[in-house]
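re: ur question from earlier - yeah i can do the single chain one, its not a big deal. heres the input i used so u can compare w yours
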Amino acid sequence: MTTQKIDLDVLPKDEEAIAGYETILTAWKKLFAALDEGRSLSVAEVETTISSAKDAMFGRENVFFDALLDDLSSSSSDLRHAKLTAGLNKILMDRQGFKVSKEGGGLG
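and the output i got, formated as tokens:
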């Protein structure tokens, strides 16, 4: 099996996927960096970061992310932070052309 390295800093090849990509990438990097460094962001920081990313999402991405937000409404702030980071990663991967079925946790 061949492993492919994915550089999320590279804009997607599909021109339609480029709109808002850098905004979502910036939000993902901020959330990921905090997790990677073992830091917790405040609820307000996470909300502000997510809000800017949501403004850059397409319709089906917003539907996916809103469902994720609903699922995490009663979760601890650290778990919510981690799952929202993973959700942004899925959106970035989807925009890069890596499609995962909805049943497997993708955007559908």
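The helical segments are 21-36, 43-55, 59-71, 77-95. not sure if urs matches, ping me
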